Amino acid sequence: MDVSLLLDDLNPAQREAVMAPAGHQLILAGAGSGKTRVLVHRIAWMIQVEQRSPYSIMAVTFTNKAAKEMRHRLDELFQQTGQPISIHTIWVGTFHGLAHRLLKAHWQDANLPQNFQILDSDDQLRLIKRVYQALQIDEDKWPPKQAQWFINEQKDEGRRAKHIQETTDPFIRTMRKIYQTYEDDCQRGGMIDFAEILLRAHELWLNKPHLLEHYRNRFNFILVDEFQDTNSVQYAWLRVLAGKSSFVTAVGDDDQSIYGWRGAKIENIRKFSEDFSPCQIIRLEQNYRSTGNILHAANSVIANNLGRLGKELWTDGEKGEPISLYAAYNEQDEARFIVERIQSWISQGKRRSESAILYRSNAQSRALEEALLREAIPYRIYGGQRFYDRLEIKNAVAYLRLLNNPHDDAAFERVINTPTRGIGDKTLEDIRVVARSENISLWAAAGQLILRKHFAARASNAIETFMQMILQLQKDLCAPNEADELPALDFIAETVLDKTGLLAFHQNEKGEKGQARGENLQELIAACRAFETEDDAPILQQFLDTAALDAGDAQAEEFEDAVQLMTLHSAKGLEFPLVFLAGVEEGLFPHKMSIDDPDGIEEERRLCYVGITRAMQKLFITYAETRRLHGTESFNRVSRFVKEIPTDCIDEVRLKTAITRPVTYQQPSSKFTLKDEGEDTGFKLGQKVSHAIFGEGVILQFEGKGPNSVVEVKFAKIGKKRLVMQYAKLQAI
């Protein structure tokens, strides 16, 4: 065959990776550096030039979409070279897909029934709730979602219930008991959840040496994409499979490791060259996506992280426009500015889908959605839901609807058992039957059945307590006071979320989901506070009408040209000519949950790097000097990440109509200069330091300048301390 067909369109580093001799390789592939092309051409090179058997190759990806894309590209490449090969002879798939394939082939060795069932997240949660009933565990004290998170986390770390040590900690003891009973129920019922697929496949290697030997002999070459996203059990599965005879090619980017909150271990890619030694390291640094200014900014930001494997993106393309920084007065001004820039973009004949608004927190989308709706600009939430479509918001609005009208059947049905009150499906079905037969509302039917003593005492008490709660809230919040005034709308929303237990219910969901849902509910309170009345109708009714209309304006259809909105986590792997990074301010990005944690700050910085490198031609960074988010108004400093961008590749936007106070010193040349807090002390935010008495810590904040400035440091042993710089004698670590 003509070898040039596999190499002609590759740059020198890509060719080196494709033609690498048999052995372990770590390919550090920067954003937009063509890593998928390298993976595909490497597989084709091994098969068509080195004459390796397709049967001996396994390629592992993280998403079904990526696996499908890889198969498609391989098929195209084989067709172009005139040597078509059946793609099915190569194992290409996700970790879970390939592990499932193994379990289906060796179900008996895996101690599973032949027709074992895979539980999705909802099925898993229902089974956990049945475990709660069997163990008589209080769901209010130990929310089932918390147990679900605990079980999945243990499995991702490769731990069974029996591996968790006995302890006096009531939380661990309770979770261990739930996990053990859940395991027993799954085994008895022939069921496995998503996390179990990989754990069971890993145990297959450990428990059945003859099978491990068979697959080690078969798969001599294992290629893994997005290696920085592997968790503990995935890494262990690969190490055991590879053994000492198979060669592993790991492709990834430690600078784009942003999923630590869901179990990804950045240390896996960092220690790969030690665990798979000898290892050839190849860096793909030429970027084909972004302009020089954008790459210069991204390189400068990520350079502040420690322990990097080292890589610097570059392009032989144009330098491009500077990055534009806009200091908004508040979140409404920020949203208005972004929408105006999108309108300008569209007026130049550009497509809406070529623009993307990225944000750190889902709750930020509300103000942006409202601004887009006002200007009738179609938009789509990528990988998520519109604000009023989110489960927790629907639940909250349903309670508000019940206050406005207790006979609202849809609202009644949605929240009568949310949070859980012990009102089961059978009880609710009895209410439905009476409502239908007597042509009355569910609320009225429930009242009738209580009067008729239809229900058992427990169910009757639960329904009556629920209805009394709604009536009391209605009396307290929807009736005029002595001054003939109604409570403020935000007070109504805040009281409802508190008294119904809905806010606590959603906040108690473990991990990122609980945090996001709590933030969204606080954002609903902010929406109520900012709501402006249009007529003399009751304000609650007006708000509910507006919310219904916003929810009714469906997202743009898949085929429709629409602006893309998404979280920074969802944006990974995507690219857009025009990108807005919104809300780039301390406490939001980096997120307040990460500010006290050096590792957390580094992951936030990697997230910023990912966000910057999504932009191809033009990047806007915006932040609000004051922001009402999660129900609280805050006065914000621009993010430390902005201060890490060189002054020569960023311009500050000043609008005559904008109400903003200067946040940067403006030189006569109008070049952007933004001083970093603490820059005249020799230290900076987030830096690790050591104190002679207090030990090691992290700098959280500076006040003042020079030797008399005060620095706030969080020390590992004693917590936060405020110190005067000239006396602190801090040492950089």
According to CATH, what is the class of the largest domain? Answer: Alpha Beta
Residues in helices, as a percent range: 40-55%
Kindly report the average pLDDT value.
87
CATH architecture of the largest domain: 3-Layer(aba) Sandwich
Strand order of the largest sheet: 11-12-10-13-14-9-17
According to CATH, what is the topology of the largest domain?
Rossmann fold
Residue stretches low in confidence (pLDDT < 50, at least 5 long) are 656-675
**What gross morphology would you assign?**
globular
Largest sheet descriptor: 7 strands, parallel
Count of strand segments:
22
Number of helices: 29
Termini gap:
56 Å
The helix/strand class is: alpha/beta
Rg, Å, rounded: 29 Å
Give the SSE layout.
Elements: H1 4-7, H2 12-18, E1 24-29, H3 35-48, E2 57-61, H4 64-80, E3 91-94, H5 95-105, E4 117-119, H6 121-135, H7 144-156, H8 170-189, E5 191-193, H9 194-207, H10 209-218, E6 221-224, H11 232-242, E7 247-252, H12 266-270, H13 272-275, E8 279-284, H14 292-302, E9 323-328, H15 331-347, E10 355-359, H16 365-374, E11 379-381, H17 391-404, H18 409-415, H19 425-438, H20 442-451, H21 457-478, H22 489-499, H23 502-507, H24 511-530, H25 539-552, E12 563-567, H26 568-571, E13 576-582, H27 598-612, E14 615-624, E15 626-629, E16 632-635, H28 640-643, E17 650-653, E18 688-691, E19 695-703, E20 710-715, E21 719-724, H29 725-728, E22 731-732
Parallel strand pairs: 1-7, 1-8, 2-3, 2-6, 4-5, 6-7, 9-14, 9-17, 10-12, 10-13, 11-12, 13-14
Antiparallel strand pairs: 15-16, 18-19, 18-22, 19-20, 20-21
Helix pairs in contact: 2-3, 3-4, 5-9, 6-7, 6-8, 7-9, 9-11, 14-27, 15-16, 17-18, 17-21, 17-24, 17-25, 19-20, 20-21, 21-22, 22-24
